[in-house]
Write a structure and sequence with these properties.
Blueprint: H1 15-19, H2 23-34, H3 42-46, H4 56-62, H5 67-77, H6 84-91, H7 95-102, E1 107-110, H8 114-124, E2 134-139, E3 158-163, H9 177-190, E4 196-202, H10 209-216, E5 224-230
Parallel strand pairs: 1-2, 2-3, 3-4, 4-5
Helix pairs in contact: 2-5, 4-5
């Protein structure tokens, strides 16, 4: 199926070539082959990061057919959160080429951990994510410094803040007022249409009601908040 289709005059195209050159039909073919990987709720069915089970090699072959197939295949190849392999691919590319690929990203996770996020932040800096629908950032108890790249996700409305189950002796999550304000300013600049924030915290590092109230006061456009408790692993 993934054999290159040469650009030929419409009158000389075979029926098969016509089918494989029609955007709507190509979209249906790849959607069928993806077998629900891009469907809403796939993270609940088969896990959050599905990059290991998705048929990457087959869809990479589809992307080599022609421009039409490239754009259709990239919708699936870049759907899952960016693992190290994809970050390494982006690192080798110039900024304008990185943007071509991040245009397809729908799901993004930003660890926001200084010791491991500096390189990731440098790779993603100044990139736009016009199709971003799911985003998660991490914070540590007592964290005072941010390690988030300067990116833009103008359509994202729903964000998850994931509290790391770190050493709670350093303080509770969001306990530093200055860090709260810096984080809020950065989030509103990065995701200007943000409407909902969900905070997930392990039972060993809960977010205090006072810290949550002070953090909420930094946001004017976010009207929906949620706090989820997760068991310690």
């Amino acid at each position: 199926m993934a054999r290159r289709i040469h650009q030929t005059p419409p009158s000389s195209l075979t029926a098969t070539q016509c089918v494989l050159s029609t955007p709507e039909l190509v979209s249906e073919i790849l959607h069928w082959d993806a077998d629900g990987y891009k469907e809403p709720g796939y993270k609940q069915r088969i896990g959050y990061n599905n990059d290991q089970t998705f048929p990457k090699n087959r869809f990479a072959s589809y992307a080599r057919v022609n421009t039409l197939w490239f754009h259709q295949a990239m919708r699936y190849l870049w759907w899952t959160p960016l693992p190290y392999s994809k970050l390494r691919t982006l690192e080798r590319l110039p900024l304008e080429r990185r943007q071509v690929y991040t245009n397809f990203v729908v799901d993004l996770t930003l660890p926001n951990y200084f010791q491991s996020s500096c390189k990731e932040s440098r790779i993603l800096e100044r990139l736009k994510f016009p199709r971003l629908r799911f985003a998660k950032i991490g914070i540590c108890p007592g964290q005072r410094l941010l390690s988030l790249p300067g990116i833009r996700g103008d359509v994202l409305q729903d964000l998850t803040i994931d509290v790391w189950n770190d050493d709670v002796r350093r303080g509770g999550p969001l306990s530093d007022n200055k860090m709260q304000k810096r984080l809020a300013i950065r989030l509103m600049k990065t995701f200007p249409r943000l409407k909902k924030i969900t905070i997930t915290a392990p039972s060993g590092a809960p977010v205090s009601p006072g810290d949550l109230a002070r953090f909420q006061a930094n946001f004017t456009g976010v009207h929906s908040w949620g706090v989820q408790r997760e068991p310690n692993l």
